[in-house]
Amino acid sequence: MARSSIRHDILMAMTGALLLLVFAEPVRSQELGGDVPAGKTLYERHCARCHGVGGWGDGPFAQEESIPPANFHSPIMQGRSDEQMVMAIEFGLAMSKMHGWKGRLNEQEMRDVVSYIRFLTQRAR
Ligand code: HEC
After folding, report:
1. Domain at 49, CATH number
2. d(CA 90, CA 86)
3. Can you say whether residue 94 is alpha, beta or left, with left for phi > 0 and alpha for psi between -120 and 50 degrees?
4. What is the pLDDT of residues 22-67, one digit of tens each?
5. Cα–ligand 1 centroid distance for 19 (angstroms)
6. How many CB atoms lie within 10 A of CB 62?
7. Is residue 70 scored above 90 in pLDDT?
8. Residue 39: inside a domain, yes or no?
């Protein structure tokens, strides 16, 4: 009896730690340290034509895409960690117009742009 309850405790502690990791991720990763004003310039130059000035996935090019550009306000995008965003920007996504920006944006610029996207989506429309 005692033995299985210890095992249960360990299991619960592990589950707790796992949940903590999953939910702590976006918060912890907010510390990318990107520069918001620099990100705004980059975003408006390179990203807004598809993702929209406000980040709603409604830029003028959005119509032409078979796969719609990500709406950064969606719960799915809000759930992405900053690292995941940077990875998507760096390497792009298979089978979509979202090509990788490696070689066009440097590491700092990718961080700036992600910080700007976070800034955009924390504001009400
Ligand atoms: C030619 C249009 C186009 C441009 C320009 C563009 N994107 Fe995208 N982007 C897309 C499309 C389409 C998707 C959705 C692809 C999918 O769901 O497979 C996407 C998805 C994304 C995602 C979501 C990745 C994920 O985790 O699902 C991020 C982040 C992103 N874009 C960032 C950017 C940034 C930053 C820029 C500017 C540097 C940019 N995009 C420029 C079309 C574009």
Report:
1. 1.10.760.10
2. 6
3. beta
4. 554 444 345 678 999 999 999 999 999 999 999 999 999 988 777 8
5. 28
6. 17
7. yes
8. yes
Q: Evaluate whether residue 109 is within a structural domain.
A: yes
Number of structural domains found in the chain: 1
Cα torsion 63, 67, 71, 75: sign: positive
Residue 99 bridge partners (DSSP): 92
Residue with CA nearest ligand 1 atom 32: 89
Range of the domain at 107: 32-121
Write the CA distances from 35 to 31, 91, 111, 115, integer angstroms: 11, 21, 8, 7
**pLDDT surpasses 70 at 112:** yes
pLDDT on residue 26: 44
Q: Does the residue 69 lie in any domain?
A: yes
Q: How far does residue 18's CA lie from ligand 1's centre (Å)?
A: 29
CA-to-CA distance for 82 and 26, rounded, in angstroms?
7
Q: Is the pTM of this model over 0.85?
A: no
Pair of tokens at residue 11: 């299991």
Determine which residue's CA is closest to atom 13 belonging to ligand 1. 69
Residue 4 lies in a domain: no
